[in-house]
Amino acid sequence: MPLTDTAVRNAKPGSKTARMFDERGLYLEVSPAGGKWWRFKYR
Predict the structure, then answer these.
(1) Three-class secondary structure of residue 43 per DSSP
(2) CA–CA separation, 17 vs 34, rounded Å?
(3) What are phi and psi of 2, to 5 degrees?
(4) Residue 23 confidence class, pLDDT cut points 50, 70, 90
(5) DSSP string covering 1-43, please?
């Protein structure tokens, strides 16, 4: 299921790094400091 714009904007930092997965290896990483980065896992 793809991530929505609302879900990305409302992602709050926690005590650990959180990963919210989208599709086919794309995910949003939310750091405890509040930074948000798009990551892509590939092989």
Answers:
(1) coil
(2) 9
(3) -70, 150
(4) confident
(5) -PPPHHHHHT----SS-EEEE-STTEEEEE-TTS-EEEEE---
